[in-house]
Write a structure and sequence with these properties.
This protein has 12 helices and 19 strands. By secondary structure, the protein is α/β, with parallel strands linked by helices. Strand 10 (about 225-230), helix 9 and strand 11 (about 270-275) form a beta-alpha-beta unit. Helix 7 packs across helix 8. It has helices at about 10-20, 30-40, 60-65, 80-85, 105-110, 125-130, 170-180, 200-220, 245-260, 275-280, 310-315, 405-410; strands spanning about 25, 50-55, 70-75, 95, 115-120, 140, 150, 155, 185-190, 225-230, 270-275, 285-295, 300-305, 320-325, 335-340, 350-355, 365, 385-390, 395-400. Helices cover about 30% and strands about 20% of the residues. The strands form 3 sheets. Strands 1, 12, 13, 14, 15, 16, 17, 18 and 19 form a 9-stranded mixed β-sheet that branches. The chain folds into 2 domains: about 30-280, Alanine racemase (TIM Barrel, Alpha-Beta Barrel); about 280-415, Lyase, Ornithine Decarboxylase, Chain A, domain 1. Bound molecules: pyridoxal-5'-phosphate. Pyridoxal-5'-phosphate binds near residues 97, 233, 276, 277 and 371. Pyridoxal-5'-phosphate (PLP) binds near residues 53, 191, 194, 233 and 371.
Amino acid sequence: MKKETFVTRETAEKIAKKYPTPFYLYDEAGIRANAEAVQKAFAWNSGFKEYFAVKANPNPFLINILREYGCGADCSSMTELMLSEAVGIKGSDIMFSSNDTPFEEYEYANRLNAIINLDDITHIDFCEKACGGKLPETMSCRYNPGGKFTLSNGIMDDPGDAKYGMTHDQMIEAYKILMSKGVKHFGIHAFLASNTVTNDYYAQLAGQLFELAVELKNKTGADIRFINLSGGVGVAYTPEQTPNDIAVIGAGVEKVYNEIMKPNGMGDVSIYTEMGRYMLAPYGVLVTRAIHEKHTYKEYIGVDACAVNLMRPAMYGSYHHITVLGKEDRPCDHTYDVTGSLCENNDKFAVDRKLPGIDMGDLCVIHDAGAHGYAMGYNYNGKLKCAEILLKNDGSFELIRRAETPKDYFATLDCFEIYDKL
Ligand SMILES: *Cc1c(COP(=O)(O)O)cnc(C)c1O
């Protein structure tokens, strides 16, 4: 499928006049339409809730847009909890799905009345202490079936090699212990494959979790209130991939629900999701300007963004589509490596990429960066993180996070004498 951008060269240049490149640009209309489609796809389940995975994009403006569609927040750290609290997401609208969890984070999650999703059976006592000796009434446990997880289209992941979750027997044991400690209502959570570009993932995962739910109910008598399918729904990063259809995904889960949950008297159990990537990735782009060309053993285009702004290509070799604004319809008859300025040879947004001829000053749009993009940024080479801008429904734009300044970068040196000279 041809990949198109939501921003024209004209608009991007207008924004760049006010906020210099590089910057992240988000598409409000796209975010809204998608959030609505997600709600519609699961409307058959009256308790459905999407807990947006804050780690994918911790920007309060964007989280607030998602809230309008009923989304809560899935948090995994202290600052994610703090951010959710600050934007007014409260109590059971916060899912705390962490692992290797520090004591203070359980303490804090409990104080917020968040739903705590335990990663391990050994966390039960640890969490109980953090909760001042009394566990919350509703809790969840994370399941890891081990082995390999394979989908019909060949997508595979390796739960047996993942650090997350409890074994089947530990799950049953954990629910018994939790019940003996006074926990009354339960959820089940699992995340078995990442970035699945297939409509089958959630349904297959749901089948496994529904069967486990029935077994848990029968063996322990636990009152199961929700099944949390977590994240892992992918987006089509490459033009060759077919994007997921959330309506088909929702209907697939409904079918399995009707087959397994309803006949077992569990037709009132809520479905929760914790999507991050699927909620925002396609609706955010990194806009960057070509500032150098280099002709050595290969043809290079140097842009003013680098892996600090978008780490996925450097970290995982991920493909992110690139559009040269104003040249959308030109033939891709040049082959470039598109690089950033880090002193790291993996700082390349694209390798051997077919693109139209790029002139210095051209604006490039790096696609599908709205999730796990800005959020993964770091400060290697003393590079600063860029601004985030929202392109609104009415065509206007708004700064939703300013760019870092050297002062921000040096802020943690304030205990040194040189600080005043920085
Ligand atoms: C990362 C993560 C998510 C979100 O994953 P996506 O692939 O972005 O949808 C959800 N839940 C947990 C526990 C996670 O770690």
